[in-house]
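Hi everyone, sorry if this is the wrong subforum. Our group has a chain we'd like a structural model of before ordering constructs, and none of us has done structure prediction before. Sequence below.
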Amino acid sequence: MVDADGVARVATAGVRGDGRGSVDDDTVFAAASLSKPVFASGVMSLVDAGALDLDRSLTDYVAEPYLADDERAPSITARMVLSHTTGFPNWREDGPLFLRWQPGTRWGYSGEGYAYLQQVVEQLAGVSLDLYLADAVLRPLGMNDSSFAWREEDEGRVAVGHDRDGNPQPRTCASQAKAAAGGLYTTGPDYLRFLVHSLAHEHRMFEPQARVDDELAWGLGWGIEESDGAPAIWQWGNNPGYKNFVIGRPADGQGVVVFTNSDRGALVYRDVVRRLLPGPHPSLETRRRPRWLLATAGRPVDLRPRLDEPAVRAVLEVLTRRGDEGEVDRIADRYRDGHARLLGLVVEKSWEAQRTATGTPIACIGLEPRDYRDEAEITSLAVLPEWRRQGFARALIFGACAHLGLRAVEAETDADAVDFFRATGFAVESLGESYPGVDRFRCRLELPPR
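Answer:
Right subforum, don't worry. Here is the predicted structure as tokens:
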């Protein structure tokens, strides 16, 4: 912690785990997403040197595009990455990367964007990210116990992560391709040095770039609280076995950073922050925010037991031309009996403007298994209109394949939808005209063996 007089203090408690003794000032923690503000500071050094323009397309800096199949991707800039407005999901799942919305139009937390900007930084610096950030940020600030690459000599003093029941977890090193988003290993005193420096010298990074809701915004690499209390900058870190938090008030220089080596660590850092920095902290209540980003279940669910529910019928109605009830009944009956499957993505949490109830399906896919069980025909694919252009159809296709253990899926479609299947990775074959002026296509996706 650092107080308003600039006095820095470090307090330690608990154990490193796995018989490694007590936590002390030299204990190394996985910083998780507390890596992002440090990376952002390194990005701003490139901006100061004139090597990087925050508002220039990132495609101008790299030879290979990060996302080649979307015409919106070239509009992504470093400012959008640092303020989480790229339109990328946090991380791609089993399928290809996709944009959920037009870049720059809304906030959505994304580590994927940081991985993209990492490629740009490495291209401009001519060295790997860990070497660049060591020269640009860590060594100048005296963060000699910190690194963006795992150092074997630190093994004996690392805090072992623990699950919610207190069981030690095997240590896993962050992928070097994702180091900007979560690859920092550091100690409490080292990160406190970074926080003190940032509160004193990096106010330009605390200007709001994107609005989350009435009390939260995002700057360049930092979240911003704008509640009734003093404005504050913040970031949480969330890796398996580690839950961390940093918050500071630029107006008076007070700040707190908390590292824990437990999946229950959020209970600790919330209490610590509230005791040391009294006042409202909407950053500690992001999962209860009224307009926090909507989330869907990570895997599709079986909709067949819910075929008569109005919410499921509303999705099936998208498959009809005019919302005819009889046609909805016929579609539902197709999945009511037999081997056909109907899977859907449902809202898991709903704090967005739509006020959609938890469990509401927003997209569905119908599949007819082939005689050989690891292939299927896509018979239906629908996304509610208000949820389109966020990648849910792609996510549903790949999620359904994983859920059912499919090796390949096929679909027959017309010219209106063939570009979607092609962009999703399907091989496309023309079937000619089904009748004059109406072309049909056979699309096939083969998935790599698991």
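For your construct planning: The chain has two domains: 29-288, 295-406. The first strand starts at residue 29 and ends at 30.
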